[in-house]
Amino acid sequence: MRARLLAIIRAIAFIALALILCGIIFEASGFSAPDMFSAILDGAFLSDGALIHDLRWACPLFVSATGVVVAFRCGYFNVGTQGQFYLGGVGATVAVALLPGLPAVIVTLVAILAGIGFGALWAFWPGWLRIRSGTDEVITTLMGNFIAGLLLVWVTSGPLKDPSGSGQVTSSPPVPLAIRLSTDTGVSVWILALTVLVGVVTWVLVNRTAFGVLGGLAGRNPVMVTWQGARLSRLGLGAFLFSGATAGLAGAMEVLGPDGRLVSGFSPAHGFTAVLIALVANLSVSGSVIVALFFGGLASASLYLPVIAGLPSAAIDMVNAAIALFITSRAMPGWLRLPRRNRS
Amino acid sequence: MMDLIVAVLRTGTPMIYVAMAGVLAQRAGVWNLGLEGLMITGACASAVIAEQTGSVALGLLGAVGFCVLLSALLWLVIEKLKANPIIAGLGLTGLGLGGTDFGIQAVYGSEGAVTAPAGIPTLGPAFGPFGVLDALVLAMPVMVFGVWFACRRTRFGLRLTASGEHPFAARSVGADPARMRLIALLLGGVLAGLGGAELSLGGLDIFSVGMTAGRGFMAFSAVIFGAGHPVGATFAALFFALVEFLGIKAQLVFGEHAPRDFVLMLPYIATVLGIWISARLRGGALLSAIEMRDG
């Protein structure tokens, strides 16, 4: 209990440090830091309907974050969530486009599975390269993000282009409402049920299965796990596939849920934020729930800022990045230091 | 052929400067994934300052100043707060990408691009096709030689490499690894600032939000591909630039048959191939390497 409390205090302390850094940058660029933070707070949690928006962004973020938790616990820095998320969206849209006329329930189900499959596929090749030849997964997954982004541009302006669409941002034709998981609000029984399901499955996987326990050990001491006879390569590949699958599911949820279509360059900060949620939650599934609600709020604030408050939305990107900069810090004053055994 | 050499040099030079920053950090034992953030900060600061003051020299100085400041911040977080270098580096990159976007909007409203009145001085039309090469491109071989000399032929370089490869050995001869890392990161800040400035002021003299598009990460990959050797990293960066050039050429030649988005993917794919080859040749980390990277 003490360890958990300390972990929370620690996370809050580093978020505060990150906010101070951002405040200094806001002031230096001629904005008033208190105004900026109060606008962010309004957009995230206090204005009308903010909590619904919060939930709309938090659900897919949490789903992706669970995958990051699994991969990072195994010791693999899969930072390709963004690309896997995009591929998931593409997969779901392809399924919807290929299956006209079938019953809506089946199409939805196939689209979700396609999203999961495409996402897992996009995590498979960096995982394979990592496990077979030790190719650094941080670079391959980052490059995968750029490639997936371009693939998304090509898909939405080529094969899956909405013929009636116009304007700068290309997209696929809208998904019929019967197939969708939610309306544009992004909060529905289905979305919430899927999110809860992923949370429960991941929690059980991490805390109650051999895969989760061995994976957690492998992340801290791979040599020991090998000596104990576990197949490290299988664990690692499993972790990659799982994180890709969850990110893909999140992408499918966006397309079938609030977005209602595949939009070129949608949710550009999703992957980074999902990684951040997992890290702030200290790689705990249950912790990720609360942290996801916090960052879901920030994500909705990044839409609120430019539209309502007339402030640059990049402020949110900066807040997120500053939190990432500090959150993994291990140096703490003595009384805040975590006992090492209970760290994760 | 001439235009190939000129184009590859112009595209490759910003990456080479940033890659040299990566080489110094790598040798000191820091996986500097903040390079992308440093590069865009350099590109933004140089263009904005050149536009505001009209002086390219002040722009370069400002770019270097900002990048050194950010590098110092990264050092503080990694060494003093004991953060994970990978995540802290990615955080710094995010701070650079978000901060430049924010800064541009703060100064210019929501235009998203700045045009500088002038760029870095070039050779001029007297030199034919080579006339478009600017001072930083010409200084690049000297800079690479300098980094090579410092790393491979001086006491400083030995201590730097020791700090990365075997901090205990470095400590035993009186070199403080933490201090060596600070020096490496600060010098890297200077080089990354120049690389970023070359990106924005070395051709079109425009800065636009997100213009690095992963070139900082590519520069980091060039370090891995080049095995942390300055000359190796230089050729790796030139290779990535060559792939980019060939893609653009292919599009000009084949037109519709070479879709634009796939052509744009080529440098990223080349980067993946590059570090895969380097892992095959030199053996990568087959076990989880997080503990080692923390070192």
Automatic annotation (TrEMBL), chain A:
Pfam families: BPD_transp_2. The chain crosses the membrane at residues 7-26, 55-76, 83-99, 105-125, 137-156, 187-211, 232-252, 272-296, 303-327. One of its GO terms (cellular component) is plasma membrane. The keyword ATP-binding does not apply. The lineage of its organism: Bacteria, Pseudomonadati, Pseudomonadota, Alphaproteobacteria, Acetobacterales. This is ABC transporter permease. InterPro entries: ABC_transp_permease. Its main location: membrane. Keywords: Cell membrane, Membrane, Transmembrane, Transmembrane helix. It is found in: Cell membrane. One of its GO terms (molecular function) is transmembrane transporter activity. It is a multi-pass membrane protein.
TrEMBL record, chain B:
GO terms for molecular function: transmembrane transporter activity. Keywords: Cell membrane, Membrane, Transmembrane, Transmembrane helix. It is found in: Cell membrane. The chain crosses the membrane at residues 56-78, 85-108, 128-151, 180-197, 217-242, 262-279. This is ABC transporter permease. It comes from the Bacteria. It comes from Acidisoma cellulosilyticum. One of its GO terms (cellular component) is plasma membrane. The keyword Membrane applies. CDD domains: TM_PBP1_transp_TpRbsC_like. Pfam families: BPD_transp_2.
